[in-house]
Design a protein that fits this description.
single chain; binds O-methyl-L-tyrosine; binds zinc ion; Peptidase_M1_pepN_C; Aminopeptidase_N-like_N_sf; EC 3.4.11.2; metal-binding
Length: 852
């Protein structure tokens, strides 16, 4: 790199010197370029002479200050900005500039996804469209006119309400949109295309009618009904749960195929990765349906938590993201099974966030500095951020939490605020001091709690010690404050007491008396705090039977399996007590989705996280041995569960049908560990006859791991059926690159040449290369070829789309926990990538942290 990229610090935050009272934008879209005319009304807020606007990769055509054309001496341009000298107290600036959307492969700013013009402005994409004060604390009223060829782009959209249509003589037309709600530039959006659409209507609680439209590629209209249903449910839920209603006449959603993330909450015009809109049972799995419901709701909920009240600066990102994730998780829990939702949320947190929090890229949910803000759309900011909101919800209780949210909305509506402002509202309405609690915003790493017990003279004492971690830079951190739900269960299985403790000191103990025998502890019920419990001893088999909390019952099952696997990794034989307990689970008559979770063995990644020095090979072999043993011992029962729940003719997506598919596919996967022809044939039959994508995907996965010729036949069939459907092809690539078979790297390399694959489409990169980099067996192969392949892809993709490339860099973040041999191989590749000429600041930032 020529010059090391510079970090930006929260401590350097300064208020803006100018306000933009209104902005009027005109976009003239052409195939080869776009002309943007930007008229802004400024107001000076403090005593400065110069206005400095953000501007990146823009071709400036004209600048007018209060209608007078400026000569080149009156302003200066550099790589990041446009500065205008000697400006008055209030003035109008008109800027005309040219951009090239069809060459924009970064997918930030205005770009083309296939034939559709679309935008992505969060966090700093707007400055790649036109010069602006591109920071979230500058909020303005936008009026936007989009002009384009009428035949090619009949649909022209922007934020707010439709204001006016314009007909031109030359085959071009235009539409003007007006958004009355002041907003920061990151919420700006524009779409132009020849799109199909599905429409509906929603009447808000105060009787306003809102037009709902989902725009998709023509031919996909029939795949929008689940998204539309989810949107209406979300709108109703936010009214009922938070008293918040929608505030424009129209709510538009547009699905595009090339998108860096899941979706974006632009005011009144959400832009979505098509993977989170389009679904029918032939092409989408049950998990996809759930994902759509949650992302549609997430973006809708942002209208209040993000758009009406936004972030003062990007360090406050968790203000809107943690809160909105908590809201979408609560919504999904209300729509589906509360117990399953909680376990799924925690699983996700541990798989992604705990790994990040143990790595050199760890950061507090409110980071202190960044080089590229794009790198901070992390699981920490989102998922740990949601856990922090959830803890406040737990501490306050439902009623006070709702009062605190009302106070937050009433106090800060229309403003750009900080996480401190949010906590203030929680403290005021909750009547609680959250000073120590606020450390959750500023400290990194997953807190650990060492749990010891004592039982004497009928008194049970719980002794807790917080293990305080240092920050990444070695600085000391302090003990945390959190709610810890616990229960004590009598030896006969009866619940003796249930309590919420407040943990706040480095060392503290809690005593409970009146016990004839030592009770069994159930700790961190509902996962009330996002911490790691270190317990010397526990009776997991007992808790699997008697714990009344669905989360800790699940936890006991996982912990028992982990204990069993870890002793196998040390050379012990399989613990038959675990096998017996697993058999007990098989017989339970409980909700089948929950049962499917109980029967799942801990993931490879869970076991990796617990190793001091990681060696994947030992984990894989213990995992395979245990699965095979369970499959052999319980074959008959598993087959019976499979048969009872296999309904090949049903593609219903109600809770019961989804649960039946979940349990059936769980036992099929477990049975496949025995690698018998019989199971392969069952999977093949499931592939051939089922009518849902959920069943087909599991069948393919099982075949891939059990029977090469049958797998080949099924995959060929799948390819031929779906090669024209990119969303389904993502599954195809994902299945093949997650395979544990020996020749995988070679196959992944070959798949890059498939006519469907394209390095420019983020979903495809994620499903082929991203999945491979998470295939621990092959990524960490001892010949270093896995690392080399991913490093080569990082270098290639970094030139096209730095945000995608830095996502791939993150897969190296367990570098410092790997064994010496793997570390050496990883280092070689990381050094090669970081010394690449012209490497983006996105990739630089991640690799630099890993290597430090
Ligand atoms: N705010 C969106 C996520 C998002 C962030 C950045 C993007 O591009 C760089 C795109 C989307 C959300 O939370 O849904
Ligand atoms: Zn969000």
């Amino acid at each position: 790199m020529s010059k090391e990229p510079q970090a930006i610090y929260l401590k350097d935050y300064k208020k803006p010197s100018f306000a933009i009272r209104e902005v009027n934008l005109t976009f003239e879209l052409f195939e080869e370029y776009t002309i943007v005319t930007n008229v802004m009304k400024f107001l000076k807020l403090d005593n400065v002479q110069e206005l400095r606007l953000h501007a990146e990769e823009l071709e400036l055509l004209e600048v007018f200050l209060d209608d007078v054309a400026l000569d080149q001496e009156s302003y200066t341009i550099d790589e990041e900005s446009l500065s205008v000298k000697n400006v008055a107290e209030s003035f109008t600036l008109k800027i005309v500039n040219k951009i090239y959307p069809h060459k924009n492969t970064e997918l930030e700013g205005l770009y083309k996804s296939g034939d559709i013009f679309c935008t992505q402005c969060e966090p700093e994409g707007f400055r790649r469209i036109t010069p602006y004060l591109d920071r979230p604390d500058v909020m303005s009223v936008f009026t936007t006119t989009v002009i384009a060829d009428k035949e090619k782009y009949p649909i022209l959209l922007s934020n707010g309400n439709k204001h006016q249509c314009h007909e031109n003589f030359d085959g071009r037309h235009g539409v003007t949109w007006h958004d009355p709600h002041p907003k920061p530039s990151y919420l700006f959006a524009l779409v132009a295309g020849d799109l199909g659409s599905v429409s509906d209507e929603f009447t808000t609680m105060s009787g306003n009618k809102v037009a709902l439209n989902i725009y998709v590629d023509k031919g996909n209209e029939s795949k929008c009904s689940h998204a539309m249903r989810s949107l209406k449910e979300a709108m109703r839920w936010d009214e009922e749960t938070y008293g918040r209603e929608y505030d424009l006449d129209i709510y538009n959603i547009v699905a595009v195929d090339s998108f860096n993330m899941g979706a974006m909450e632009n005011k009144g015009l959400n832009i979505f990765n098509s993977a989170y809109v389009l679904a029918n049972t032939d092409t989408a799995t049950d998990a996809n349906f759930m994902g759509i419901e949650s992302v549609i709701a997430h973006e809708y909920f942002h209208n209040w938590t993000g758009n009406r009240i936004t972030c003062r600066d990007w360090f406050q990102l968790t203000l809107k993201e943690g809160l909105t994730v908590f809201r979408d998780q609560s919504f999904s829990a209300d729509m589906n099974s509360r117990e399953v939702q909680r376990i799924e949320d925690v699983k996700g947190l541990r798989e992604r966030q705990f790994v990040e929090d143990a790595s050199p890229t760890r950061h507090p949910i409110q980071p202190k500095s960044y080089i590229s803000m794009n790198n901070f759309y992390t699981s920490t900011v989102y998922e740990k951020g949601a856990e922090v909101i959830r803890m406040m919800h737990t501490l306050l209780g439902e009623e006070k939490y709702r009062a605190a949210m009302d106070l937050y909305f009433n106090t800060f509506d229309g403003e750009a605020v900080t996480t401190g402002d949010f906590v203030w509202a929680m403290e005021q309405a909750g009547g609680i001091d959250l000073k120590q609690f606020q450390l959750w915003y500023h400290q990194s790493g997953t807190p650990r709690l060492i749990v010891d017990e004592k039982f004497e003279n009928g008194v049970y004492t719980l002794m807790l010690t917080q293990k305080i971690l240092d920050d990444v830079d070695g600085s000391k951190q302090a003990p945390m404050y959190y709610p810890l739900k616990m229960a004590l269960i009598n030896q006969d299985g009866a619940l003796a007491l249930e309590k919420m403790l407040i943990v706040s000191k480095e060392k503290e103990s809690f005593s409970f008396d009146g016990f004839a025998f030592k009770p069994v502890l159930s700790i961190n019920r509902d996962f009330s705090a996002p911490i790691i419990i270190e317990q010397q001893e526990s009776d997991y088999a007992f808790l699997m039977k008697y714990d009344t909390n669905s989360f800790t019952q699940y936890e006991a099952t996982q912990n028992f399996a982990i204990e069993t696997l870890e002793s196998m990794m040390q050379g012990s034989k399989i613990d038959e007590a675990f096998v017996e307990a697993y058999g007990y689970l098989l017989d339970l008559d409980i909700d089948l989705s929950y049962k499917a979770l109980l029967l799942e063995l801990p993931s490879i990644s869970t076991l990796m996280q617990r190793q001091e020095v990681i060696d994947c090979q030992i984990i894989y072999s213990a995992h395979e041995d245990l699965a095979k043993h369970l499959a052999d011992v319980f074959q008959e029962k598993l087959l019976q569960i499979y048969k009872e729940n296999h309904n090949p003719d049903s593609d219903a997506i109600d809770a019961k049908s989804i649960a039946q598919r979940a349990i059936k596919n769980r036992v099929l996967k477990l049975l496949s560990a025995s690698e018998t022809k019989e199971i392969a044939l069952i999977a093949k039959e499931q592939y051939d006859n089922s009518i849902t994508m959920t069943d087909r995907v599991t069948a393919l996965d099982v075949l891939e791991h059990t029977d090469e010729p049958l797998a080949e036949e099924a995959f060929k069939d799948f390819y031929n059926k779906y090669k024209d459907n990119t969303l389904v092809m993502n599954k195809y690539f994902g299945l093949l690159s997650s395979s544990l078979r020996d020749d995988i790297l070679h196959r992944v390399k070959t798949l890059q040449n498939d006519e469907v694959y394209d390095d420019k489409v983020p979903n495809l990169v994620r499903s082929l290369v991203g999945t491979f980099a998470r295939n621990h067996k092959h990524f960490h192969a001892k010949d270093g070829e896995g690392y080399k392949f991913v490093a080569d892809k990082i270098v290639e993709i970094d030139k096209i789309n730095p945000q995608m490339a830095s996502g791939l860099c993150s897969t190296f973040k367990i570098y410092d926990k790997m064994n010496k041999e793997n570390q050496k191989l990883m280092k070689r590749e990381l050094m090669r990538v970081i010394s690449t000429q012209g490497l983006s600041k996105n990739s630089f930032e991640i690799i630099d942290k890993i290597l430090k």
